[in-house]
Amino acid sequence: MSHSTQPPFAYPAEALRPTVDYLIASQRENGEIPWFDGGHTDPWNHTEAAMGLSIAGEFAAAELAYDWLVSEQLDDGSWWASYVNGAPANVTRRETNYVAYIATGVWHHYLISEDLPFLERLFPTVERAIDFVVSMQSAHGEVAWACDTSGEAMDDALVTGSSSVYKSLECALHIARTLGVLKPAWRESRRKLGTALRHRPERFDRNWESKARYAMDWFYPVLAGVFQGEQGLERINARWHEFVESGLGCRCENHQPWVTVAESCELTMALLSVGDVARARALFDGLWQWRDEAGVFWTGYQFEEDVLWPLEKPTWTSGAVLLAADALSQCTTASRLFTEVDSREQPKLERRHLQA
Predict the structure, then answer these.
(1) Cα 124 to chain centroid, rounded
(2) Which of 38, 147, 162, 193 has its CA 20 to 30 A from that of 97?
(3) In this predicted structure, what is the pLDDT of residue 7?
(4) How many C-beta atoms surround the C-beta of residue 254 within 10 A?
(5) Distance from C-alpha of 208 to C-alpha of 114, rounded to nearest angstrom
(6) Rounded to two decimals, what is the model's pTM?
(7) How far is CA 83 from the centre of its chain?
(8) Are 272 and 328 in contact (CB under 8 A)?
(9) CA 158, CA 211: separation in Å to the nearest integer?
(10) Spans of all domains in the chain
(11) CA-to-CA distance for 309 and 109, rounded, in angstroms?
(12) 13-329 has which fold?
């Protein structure tokens, strides 16, 4: 995939400082980053916010966030769906894309910090998490979206969630390769999952209404590297007018008059991954209007009623903004994490070999 030799804009550090400060202020002493003050925490969005902290150079805060995940990890390698005030809240399930995402966050932090001891310290946590997720994969390749309280896989899969797992498996393999660990089972799991996402649509949304109305089902397979190059661009173009409102952003659902900042930022990175810099820049430039007086981003905008809705400023939205700004500006050494797929195989000779 070709990229422009110059980033499309300079990283707006001063304009994004309120976003960073908001993340720092939202983080609790134990490292947990809830959606907002008084809200719950889930492992995926917690990690998204932590990645924003890494981009801003707030390494201590980011590492504290990952330490919170270490402290809360269950014996089987998973986390509960949500936590409130430091205690498990939704204990009906553990969602696989939530569990896998720590690999993406840890690899992202290492790319920026180049802190090998951090990577070594977090690897056992990542390893347990990824092994749990791989155990939820069917013989057909898809990964169950969650397991129940007894640890049994729930019988269906999500395109968006599985795409996120696909990216996390890529990152987990990078971590293992860097540490000299062979993980052939992870590599095979990622291959099978990619095949399912590309060629076996019947394995997804089997027991509920199709999620195709959601923008993330449309662009997340591109963002995660399931579809690349011309295939990725064709997928984006096929439904562009269903989801994108010019000058406003990306809808969450194709039939709802509501654009959201986080989906718009993720679509920005998906566009960059297929070389569409012009539309990526235009989409991101339109998001600055959805900030409060202090410069912190709202969730989104309901354009038929002309209201900000809901009146919340999620920390994961701030994280997504920082990720998109970094991808556009190529500011940090992790800026291409979501815009390129590094498919290097693990070397044949390794320092150590762990069975997988």
Answers:
(1) 21
(2) 38
(3) 73
(4) 15
(5) 43
(6) 0.95
(7) 19
(8) yes
(9) 8
(10) 13-329
(11) 32
(12) Glycosyltransferase (1.50.10)
Closest CA to 315 of 27, 63, 54, 56: 27
Q: Which amino acid is present at 81?
A: A
How would you write 6-23 as a 3-class SS string? CCCCCCCHHHHHHHHHHH
pLDDT in tens, 139-174: 999 999 999 999 999 999 999 999 999 999 999 999
Q: How far apart are CA 90 and CA 83, in angstroms?
A: 7
Q: Which residues contact 132 (CB under 8 A, 6 or more apart)?
A: 76, 77, 78, 94, 96, 99
Helices marked H in 136-183: 159-179
End-to-end CA distance of the chain: 32
CA angle 54, 345, 191 (to 5 degrees): 90
Please enumerate, as own/partner, the contacts of 26-29 that have beta carbons within 8 Å and a separation of 24 or more: 26/315, 27/61, 27/64, 27/65, 28/86
Q: What are 139's two structure tokens?
A: 């013989």
Residue 6: predicted pLDDT: 59
Question: Quick check: bond before 12 cis, omega within 30?
Answer: no
SS3 content of the chain, % helix, strand, coil (to 5): 50, 10, 40
Both tokens of 255, joined, read: 């039939």
pLDDT beneath 50, residues of the chain:
1-5, 346-356
Check if the beta carbon of residue 217 is closer than 8 Å to that of residue 211: yes
Q: Where are the beta strands (DSSP E) in the chain?
A: 82-84, 87-90, 94-95, 146-147, 244-245, 249-251, 258-260, 300-302, 307-308
**C-alpha–C-alpha distance, residues 31 and 24, integer Å:** 10
Question: Residues 6 or more apart from 11 whose CB is under 8 A from it?
Answer: 325, 326, 329, 331
Residue 192's pLDDT is 98
Q: Taking a C-beta distance cutoff of 8 angstroms, is the pair 183, 354 a contact?
A: yes
